[in-house]
Amino acid sequence: MIFSVVTCIFCKIGTGEIPAHKVYEDDSALAFLDIKPHAGGHTVVIPKKHGETVFDLSQDDVQKLMLSVTKTMQRIQYVLNPDGFNVGWNHNTAGGQVVPHLHIHIFPRYLNDNGGSMHSIITNPGNESVENIAKRFQKK
Ligand code: AMP
Ligand code: ZN
User: Fold this and answer.
1) Euclidean distance between CA atoms 51 and 58, whole angstroms
2) Mean per-residue pLDDT for 64-85?
3) How far does the centroid of ligand 2 lie from the alpha carbon of residue 55, in Å?
4) How far is the CA of 84 from the centre of ligand 2 (A)?
5) Pocket of ligand 1, candidates 10, 36, 38, 89: which has the most ligand atoms within 8 Å of its Cβ, to mutate?
6) What is the Cα–Cα distance from 79 to 120, expressed in whole angstroms?
7) Fold of domain 9-139
8) What are phi and psi for residue 55, nearest 5 degrees?
9) Catalytic residue at 103?
């Protein structure tokens, strides 16, 4: 069994203890329909190895996960034929993460569906200038 954290809701979906509507599966990842969809076909992709965030995965696992996300998108494209996608994940509580098992959200998008883009997630640039932030990157 790859899923190992018995209290984790997404590990329980992985083992079949909690049912879910599967969209795609391979050796390292499982994709299923989100129970509270924000778009028709809203899907989450989880790695089969439990980790809270992408920082808890090995480089190899992250590479495999990216491939699984792409394959899931291809499957959604084939079945639902959306006009576009938004793909991303909420990282930590500040980023809106609720379930502590890394999961990548895939939102199928349709022209004139009244949704926004990634840019609408946060519109608070703070007081520090771009130049100042760039300097901090140069210093470290
Ligand atoms: P996040 O805020 O990124 O942690 O999102 C967690 C997502 O998991 C939400 O969109 C939930 O609707 C979804 N979710 C929680 N429980 C289930 C479940 N049992 N089956 C499918 N999706 C779920
Ligand atoms: Zn888990």
Assistant:
1) 10
2) 98
3) 14
4) 29
5) 36
6) 27
7) HIT family, subunit A (3.30.428)
8) -70, -20
9) yes
Atom in ligand 1 nearest the alpha carbon of residue 42: 10
Instruction: Please state, as a whole number, how many other Cβ atoms lie within 10 Å of the Cβ of residue 49.
Output: 21
Q: What is the pLDDT of residues 6-61, one digit of tens each?
A: 789 999 999 999 999 999 999 999 999 999 999 999 999 999 999 999 999 999 99
The ranges assigned to domains in the chain are 9-139
Ligand 1 touching residue 5 (CB < 6 A): no
Exposure of 121 in the CB half-sphere (CA atoms within 13 A): 12
Q: For atom 18 of ligand 1, which residue has the closest CA?
A: 35
Answering whether pTM is above 0.70, one says: yes
% of the chain at pLDDT higher than 70: 96
Ligand 1 atom closest to residue 96's alpha carbon, by position in its atom list: 2
pLDDT band for position 103 (cuts 50, 70, 90): very high
Question: Which residues sit with Cβ closer than 5 angstroms to ligand 2, an ion?
Answer: 5, 8, 10-11, 50, 101
Give CA–CA dist 65/29, Å, rounded: 7
